[in-house]
Amino acid sequence: MLRETVHEDECNDGADPGSVARFFSALANPLRLRLMEFICAGEHTIGECVDHLHLSRRQVSGHLRYLADTGYLQASRRGDQVYYQVATTQTPHLMHLARALARDNAVELDCCSRIDQEQ
User: Fold this and answer.
1) Class assignment of domain 27-118?
2) Residue 11 has what pLDDT?
3) Of the candidates 50, 95, 97, 44, which has an alpha carbon nearest to the alpha carbon of residue 74?
4) Which residues pair with 85 in a beta bridge?
5) Interatomic CA distance for residues 61 and 115, integer angstroms
6) pLDDT for 90-102, tens place per residue?
7) CB 61 within 8 A of CB 46
8) Alpha-carbon span 69 to 87, nearest angstrom
9) Closest CA to 51 of 35, 33, 68
10) Rounded to an integer, what distance in angstroms lies between the CA atom of residue 62 and that of residue 60?
């Protein structure tokens, strides 16, 4: 597959590589990815996330806090409910792009033994 030409200035905007790596590491968990995809589709409560993932409230709450602490999600309290939504309109685009890139590189990702060694 022919890839588009990317200019260096498009990839290097001055952001610290360590910060970018930490940013992506927040999504390096399948459960957090599932939560992100669910919440990208619309605002949800913790209870709705628990029902969607079929996990304990404690587990889901921890992942939601992690995603909120890393800037992916925002939490807002209304009455006795906490609602989570994406923190920026760019997040759904990031999730879509990540899925597309993973799909396009599925063979390479499945064959790469280095990925598991780094985790």
Assistant:
1) mainly alpha
2) 63
3) 44
4) 74
5) 27
6) 999 999 998 898 8
7) yes
8) 11
9) 35
10) 5
Among 117, 67, 76, 54, which residue's Cα sits nearest to residue 95? 67
Q: What is the spatial distance between Cα 99 and Cα 96, in angstroms, rounded to a whole number?
A: 5
pLDDT of residue 109: 81
Residues shown for the chain: 119
Place of tokens 């992690």: 66
pLDDT at 3: 53
**Domain ranges for the chain:** 27-118
Q: pTM higher than 0.90, yes or no?
A: no
Q: Quick check: 15 and 21 in contact, CB under 8 A?
A: no
Beta strand 81-86 with 73-78: parallel, antiparallel or unpaired? antiparallel
In the chain, which residues have pLDDT < 70? 1-12, 116-119
Rounded to whole angstroms, the Cα distance separating 65 from 57 reads 12
CB–CB of 13/47 below 8 Å? no
Give the list of residues 6+ apart from residue 38 with CB closer than 8 angstroms, or none: 44, 49, 52, 53
112 touches 105 (CB < 8 A) = no
